[in-house]
Amino acid sequence: MFIFKKSVACCLFLSSFFFAIPSHTKEKLSLAYEIQENLITGTVISVTEEPLPGVTVSVKNKNRVILTDENGKYAIKALEEDILVFTSIGYETLEIPIEKRLEVNVTLTALPQSLNEVVVVGYGEQRRADVTASISTVTSDELTESPVPTLSQALIGKTAGVTSRAPDGRPGAEANIQIRNLGTPLYVIDGVPSGAQQFNNLNAEDIESLSILKDASAAVYGLRAANGVVLVTTKSGGTNRENTINVNAYHGWQSLFRFPTPASAADFVRANAEADINENGSSNWTRDEVAKWQQGVPGYEGFDWSSYVKSNAPQTYANINTTGGSEKANYYVSLSRLSQDAVFDGYNFNRTNLQTNVETRIGRSIKAGVRINGKIEERDLLGLPGSDDYFQALLGQFRNLPTEKPYANDNPAYPATNNNFASNYATFPYSGYTNILRRTLQTSFDVEYKFPIEGLTATGMYAFFYNNLFENIFEKTFDTYTYNAQNEEYMVTGGQQNPFRSRSNGYIVDNVYRVQLNYKRTFGKHDVSGLAAMEAQERLDNLFFIRSQPTTNYIDLINTFNELQAVDDRVIEEARAGFIFRTNYSFDNKYLLEAGGRYDGSGFFPANGRWGFFPFVTVGWRVSEENFFGGKDKRNVLTDLKFRASYGQTGSEATGVGAFSYIPGYNWNVGNAYLDNELVTGIVSRGLPVTTLTWIKSTMTNIGVDFSLWNSKLSGSYEVFRRDLTGLPASRYDVLLPVEVGFGLPQENLNATRTLGMEMTLNHAGSTGQFNYSIGVNGTLARLRNWYTYRPRFGNSWDQYRNSTEDRWARINWGYEYIGQFQSEEEIANYPVNIDGQNNTTLMPGDFIYKDQNNDGVIDDLDVRPNGYSEGNLPYLNFGLNASLAYQGFDISFNFAGAAMQSRGRAAELKMPFQNDSNSPDFLFNDRWHREDIFDLNSPWVPGTYPALKKSNNESNQRASSFWFRNTAYLRLRDVQIGYTFPNRWLTPVKITKARLYVNGFNLFSIDNVRDLGIDPETQLNTGLDYPSVRIYNVGMNLTF
Length: 1041
Hints:
The chain is mainly β.
C-alpha cells in the first residue's frame, strides 16, 4: 500500500509539472518531437530477390500504414526507435527495428504451402504456384517434431512420395528411405551432390527445408537421379535481422517398443516334457519335477534373462544456435550434442554437430558465402563374436535357458558355463570392446556475381567433403565355470578361447566444382528464366585394415608379425562430370513450361559408353487463372487449380558391376597355396572385359493436379506415375561357354522393370479466435513389376510358371496354402493326401493341412503358389497423418505413420520350438495343441493355434506356407508433442524473447496384426531378433534470447 501511495503521488507531481509548462514551451517540445521523425525508405523482396508489390508497411503501435509499389519500394516517416512491421498474404510477418537507419531493406519468406512459397528445385528456386514438377517439401518445424537421432527417421510419414521403414532401433539408427519405392535417392545438400551418410550427418535443427524431386525434373542431376533426389537447404541468417540466440534441450528415457517374450522356466520345462512325450511316449522330466518348476519352490525358481539384461536407457540432446544479419552480411551458427544409450549395458552412441553458414555482400554485384558442417560420432560397443555386436545381446534372451543363471553358484566372480557362453550376459564385461569413431567435415564456398544486364547472374561453387572412419575391435579370451558342490570348487568348463583383434582406418575425400549462369526476366505477361551449368566431381576412397590373433588380453597394440592374420589396403577412385541446362517459361501465370537436361559422364563405364544425355520436359496449366473459370467470387472459393505433367529420362550407375571392369587383367592376392614348400599368393582372372555395359536408363512419366480452396485453407494434390527402368544388367543365357574357361559372359544392358503408382495429399488449416489448427494426410502406392527378361530358358511349363519373372509383380513369395489343422488321429489316418511325404505317419492332431493344388494326392513342390507381397523390402503402400493445435500458448502436434501391402514370414526362431536347443517365444509353448494331461497318452487333445510341440520330425509344419506368412499392416503414433509458450510479460523482465516448455513421446503405440508375435511391424529380419524400435519420453525446453 505504501508503494502504491508513493506511485500515485509521483504521477500527480509529474502531471502538475507538465500542465504548468508554458504554451510556447509545449510548442517547442512538439517541434522537437516532429524533427526526430525521419523518412525511412527501402525495398521489400522475396527470397528469390523478386520485388514484392502490395506489402503492408506500418509503424508498430502507431496509426501509420502504406503499401509497397510495383517495384517493392516504400517510404514512411518514423522515429529512429520505432519498429517497422511488414505483412503480406502468404508471407511471414516481419518486425524490424529502425535503429537510426534511413534505409531498411527486407526479405520476406513465404508461408509453407502458400502459392508464394519458394520451393527449392534442382539448381534453383521457384514459386510454388509456378512448379510443374512433382515436388514435396518438408519444413524444419516438421522435422524437429520427432525426437529421433537421424534425419532419415524424422522423414517417415511426413510427406507423400517418401516410402520408408525403420528396420532397426539401436542408438543412432538410420531409416531406409526411398522415393516412391524406386531405390536409394541422391541427396543434394546446399547444392552439393551427396549420399545418405552425408544426409544423416546433419542435425534436424539446422535444416531450413527439404524438397523431394520425384519425377523427371530430377534429370538435371543425370546419372545418379534415377531414384529421385532429396534437396536439403540448411538455415542461414536474414537481411536486417536482429541477433538471436536459440536453445533447445531435452532429456528422455528409452525402452524397447516390442520384443518377443521368452517362455518362463515353468513353461520351458513343461514344454520339454511335453515334446519328449509327443515324440517318444515318455520324458526324463518327471511329473513331480514339472510341478516344482510350476510352483517355483526353492531351487526351482527360474531366471528372467530379459529383465536381467534390459533397462530404461537415457537420451539427452542439446542445441544452441545464433543467427542474425545486416544489410551486407548474415550468419547462422549452431552447435548440438546427442547422447543415446542402448537398453543393454555397454552400448552407447554420441554425436556432436557444428553448422556454420555465413553470407556477405561485396558491393552491389557480388555475394559470397561459406557453409561448414562438422560431425564427430562415437559408438562404444562390446567385443562380442560376430559382425553385429547387438545380436548376442538380443539372442541371449533365448539362448540363455530360464532354468540357468548368469553365475556359477550365484557367485559374481565366476560366470557360469551355460547353454551358450557367448550369450551369457555375465561374460559381457570380459568380452572386450568395439570402438567406432567417425569424423566428418563438409564445406562449400560459393560466389554470385550480378551482371549489369538485368536478370543475369553467375555463380561459382567449390565443395569439399572429408569422412574418416576408425574402427578398433578387441574380442578377448575369458573363462566360464561350473560349481562342484561336493568339493566346493569352481571348475573352468568353457569360455572364449578364440581371440580376435582388428583395426581399420579409412577416409573418403570428395571434391565438387560448379560454375553456373542464371537468367530471369519478365516481359509484360511473359516470365522467362533459364540456367546453364557445368559440374565436376572426384572422389577418393581409401581403407587400411589389419587383423591379428593376440596372445594376451593385456596389450592393445598389434605389435608382432606372429600375430598377424590379414592386412588389406584399398583405394577406389571415382570421377563424374556433367553439363546442365534448364529453361522456364510462363505466360500470364496460366501456361507453364519447363524443359532441360543434362549431358553426363561417369568413369565407371568404358569410353564408348561413358556419356549420356538425359532430357526432361514439364508443362502446367493454372485453370483457376483463366477468365472463363469465373469471377473473383468463385476464385475466392477455389483459390488455385493446376494440372501438370512431366516426362523425361535419368540414369543410374548402380549396375552392380565393379569400377574399371572394362579393363582386362587379373586380381591379385586371391587365396594362397604351398607349392614346393613355398607359400604362393594366388591370382584370378577378372573375366572377359565388360565393354558393352553402360548406365541404366530411367524413363519417368508423371501426371498430377494441385488444388487449393478458400485462400489455401484446404489444399491437396493427386498424381499418378510410371517409371520404366531399362538396361538392367544381365548375361546372355543363350550363349554358353565351356566350363574350362573359368568364367561366364560379361553383363550387358538387357532387362527392364516398371514401377507403377499413385499418391495423394490433403491439408486443411484454420483458426477460430485464438484457436489455430492444421491437419494433413498423405499416401503413396508404388509397386515394382518385372517388365522384360532376356530370353529365359525353361525345361517345361511348370518350370516357366514357377520361375519366370517376366511381366509379373516383382519379389513374389511362394509357399503352400494352409487350409486347416488335423483334429484327431482318426482324421489323419483317413486323410487321402500325403502331407508329410511318409504317408502321414509322422503327423499328430494339430499338424497343418495344405491344399493339394494339382490333386495328385501328394504335397510337394508342385503345390506351391504365390503367397502375399514382398518380404523384407519397403511396403508398397505408405501413409501418414499429421496434425497440430494451438490455443493461448498451448500447442500439441502429433504424427501417425503407417504402411500396408507388405508381408512377413517367420524364420525358425519364431516358428520352430527349441530352435538351436534354446528357449522359444512364450506363444509357441502356450498356444499349442496339447493333451489335457501331458503325461497321459490317452488324455483328450486341447486345440491351440500352433501344432503340438516336437523337437524333431516337425518338417511338415515348418514349410513355407500361408500360415507362417502374414500380410501385415500398421498405423503407429510415431510422435506427439505438447508444449506451453510462456507469455511475453513474464519474460521481458528477464530479457528472454521466448520460452517454451514441452514434453514429447515417440512410438507410443501401434495398431497392427503382429502384436501377438511380440514384434515391431517395421523391423526387417524375419527372426524377430532385430534391435526393435524404442519408445521414448522426453522433457525439453526452447529458449530464445
